[in-house]
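FORM 12-B: Structure-to-Sequence Request
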């Protein structure tokens, strides 16, 4: 059973959020890879 990544369990899991964002953008073949990369870099696995 996969846990809900948006359900807080005492901390925010950056890796799960990054992977879900990457999967979400991967659904759209028309998405510009450069723009997707910039978004993932900006909102990726950094906190703050």
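FORM 12-B RESPONSE
SEQUENCE OUT:
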């Amino acid at each position: 059973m996969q846990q809900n990544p948006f359900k807080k369990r005492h901390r925010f899991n950056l890796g799960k959020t990054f992977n879900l964002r990457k999967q979400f953008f991967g659904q759209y073949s028309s998405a510009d890879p450069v723009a997707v990369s910039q978004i993932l870099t900006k909102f990726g696995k950094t906190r703050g």
